[in-house]
Amino acid sequence: MATRRFTNDLPPDPDLVKPPAPPAASPPAAQPRTGAPPQRGNRGSGAHMPRTLTQVISEANDRVIQGDLVDYVPMSTGFDPLDGFIGGGLRKTELVLLGGAQGIGKTIATLQIARNIAMRPDQYAFYLSYEHTETHLMHRLLCLESINPPEVDLSRGVKLRDLYQIIVAERAKGFMGRDNNPAGSLQAILRDNPKTAPALARIARYSDRMILVKASPAVTTLKAIKEMTARLCDATGGNVTVFVDYLQKIAVYPERPRDENDKVTIIVEGLKDIALSLDVPVWAIVAADREGLKSKRIHLFHLRGSSALDYESDIAIIMNNKYHILSKDHVAFNPYTAKQFRDWVVFTVEKNRAGRAMQDMEFQLHGQHFAFDPRGQKVQQQLIDDKVIES
Question: Which domains does the chain possess?
């Protein structure tokens, strides 16, 4: 497969709107500190300078001495046992793809993992959504935090409908003169309501490290994503994980792809370039093709542009509804008891460059609260389309 080279010296298209800059609330530039590890690579230049193996060893040695162990300590996704199957979590320079049918919970899982990353005091999550506004993502996070994964206390849960009703009702009181603060703010409403106050307090713990962008499928190009990520890397010391929702909607310019497969090839190669050249983990959602949506169980080869996705990705995870992929030939299959699995989603690690593939694990989905119970388990039942993998 021919690999394209991505450079930053391409002339801008005057017919396109200027790509969006990172939000004003993005973290300030990191201040120099004594004994700080050296800059890693050449962020924004598109490639690392040639170095001898002796230089590589010396640089790695200096980083370890100074306590910089990011090359050796992965960042947990917070989903167990997924972390165990992929080597402990997300690693810098790696491209992770998450695929599945529409409505299976890809955005829910991705936003929850971004939240788990941002909860670490030294890490930032950069979430680009081509599907939802930043405000909608914030509403989803409020619903998620209301059940507080991994505690998952459903008795305290707030649904999106409940959240909207609380906000509208409180503002209505102000307009009708029943409230001493008629110009009440959203934060005041959420803070003063006993159902939403705990969720708002939890979000406050990481809101400065969760960076959201409403991306445009017309103008948010690979170059724009790379430039924004490079600036965030400079501001945070490189402690950024990039999340893209979703891959096929990234704008491609100035390349003019011949077809959908060629477009996906350009995009996935560009995302891998961002991971490698900027030294960050990249997690991207991938949509299934029409054939995949018709199949009983979606696999990696059902994703649009699957050959390039398979070639460039380090890890590929496919999501399927457990009820739909339970083997009907299994001795223990019972159509009545099987209905309990409708809210369970099977995550299958179909590609794993650094470990075993075709590993199935399951997590319970609480869709109304936009959250998974991250305390999953390995699938015990027989699934359709199982493949025998030799050790």
Answer: 75-158+195-378 (3.40.50.300)
